[in-house]
Amino acid sequence: MKARLGLAAMIAFAPPVLAGAAPGDALRDPVRSYRASHELAILSSLSQLLAIPNVASDRENIRLNADAIVAEFARRRIPAKLLESPDAPPAVFAEMRGPATARRTVVFYAHYDGQPVDPSRWTGKPWEPVVRDGLLERGGKDVSWAALKPPVDPRFLVYARSASDDKAAIVGLLSAVDALQAAGVPPSVHVKFFFEGEEEAGSPHLARILRDNAALLASDLWLFCDGPVHQSGRKLVFFGTRGVTDVELTAYGALRRLHSGHYGNWSPNPAVEIARLIASMRDDEGNIRIAGFSDDVRPPTDAERRAVAAAPDVDEPLRRELGLSRTEGAPERIESRILQPALNVRGLAAGDVGTRATNSIPTEASASIDFRLVPDQTPERVREKVEEHLRRQGYFLVQSVPDEATRLAHPRLLRVAWGAGYPSSRTSMELPASRAVVKILSDATGSPVVRLPTLGGSGPNSLFTEILKAPVIGVAIANHDNNQHAANENLRIGNLWDGIEMYAALMARLDF
Ligand SMILES: [Zn+2]
């Protein structure tokens, strides 16, 4: 433990434990003391929610999650219901009216579904929550639930799918409600909760659910409760998310695998074609080389650039933590790099490697790619530009698996299969609501929050603004090293404690 702390200190990462705050705060004190006397109950309700498998396509279990959350609201006498759409996981909606003096309505958004899992990569099982006394990568050991005693060490972590993304937000919000109710503190705004059940599946039905329930969801602001805090450990408010769209490209060689000695240099190699195509679209510094791809990019405002410059510079410690000897686009910092669109190769498949490698020419090769988009790019325009680029490389594009006649007819043939996607979202940092959220959270955590124009990741935030005409501001509570979307996802317990105080402050103090 000591060595691990030493390392953490060396790379200048403040452990995201409870923020040191001025004593005697009228709101923070009762919220903190409520949490301190209910730590095990809060962790137990987190653990129960985490134990329900939550991949959006697992319709039976995803509904159990939604039902469990509705029951949590019911226990608190907060009216809640499911918002249904055909063939979609329901969204959970709940409403807590503020006093007559409340002028604004704020929706707290979170999602209860999680990314699919590959159980073979997990230490333990994805839906059997485990507490550990440190990060697995740094030798963290299991702590039995029965052995947990308050005060629970805030450096302990809960491991499970969606521990941080995004059930921490749901449990944090419910606990904040409990703490405020216990303290007799009314909300300063009318509070609505909207918990989505298929965010990690690309939110295919969200637009419809929002349109069908527009009156119910009317509000002045959406708070997007998801995402990790800044890598410095400081709390993060983000004013946008990047858009996203993905594509799978498949190139074709001969109909059957051919001996590379007898046929190499004669039968085209689809792996080489895919490699060349990727290199034609993206350079070694991460810049996209597709003509017209960035035509719609709106440059960041001066205020946005200033906010990025003011964020703590974490490039160096982050580079060391991740074992990277260089970063793309250096010396430009990560906060600035994510203001630009990105092309990421998610995976490649062609032939075999290692002991399974054979001296043969693969019959096909695929690349799976995701594009991260920034204002004002749209998935539709990006798809057009990418396809134009691929055609300019001499390829005939098809959408489905080509038959033999098609393969014979086109010397360069590429299957292009697009996934879903949505545009980016960006709220002005200078709105009264934006300033209010930053001030409340800086006060609540006792140190200035990091403000960033965008999260690197994506969210369906643009839909709230487009359909419901409400601005969206992101509030992050999870630790940055939470293995989000990967195996061994985790949540540092101190981050949950901080989150409860942040959400309580927003519910009780927000006004704009
Ligand atoms: Zn998420």
Features of the shown structure:
Alpha-Beta Plaits; 2 domains; globular; alpha/beta; binds zinc ion; 21 strands; 8-stranded mixed β-sheet; single chain; 7-stranded mixed β-sheet; 21% strand
Total of helices: 16
- Total E-strand runs: 21
Bulk shape: globular
Q: Averaged pLDDT, please?
A: 94
CATH-defined superfamily of the largest domain: Zn peptidases
Classify the beta-strand content into a percent band: 15-25%
What is the CATH C level class of the largest domain, in words?
Alpha Beta
Output the CATH topology of the largest domain. Answer: Aminopeptidase
Distance between the termini: 45 Å
Radius of gyration: 24 Å
Q: Write the CATH architecture name of the largest domain.
A: 3-Layer(aba) Sandwich
**How does the helix and strand content classify structurally?**
alpha/beta
Largest sheet: 8 strands, mixed
- The percentage helix is 25-40%
Task: Provide the spatial order of strands within the biggest beta sheet.
Answer: 1-2-7-3-8-20-9-18
Low-confidence stretches: 1-23
Count of domain modules:
2
What do these coordinates show?
- This protein has 512 residues and is of the alpha/beta class.
- It folds into 2 domains: 13-239 and 427-509, Aminopeptidase (3-Layer(aba) Sandwich); 243-308 and 337-422, Alpha-Beta Plaits (2-Layer Sandwich).
- Helix content is 33%, strand content 21%.
- It has an 8-stranded mixed sheet with strand order 1-2-7-3-8-20-9-18, with helices on both faces. Strands 10, 12, 14, 15, 16, 17 and 19 form a 7-stranded mixed sheet that branches.
- Helix 5 (167-183) packs across helix 16 and helix 14 packs across helix 16.
- Bound molecules: zinc ion.
- Zinc ion (ZN) binds next to loops.
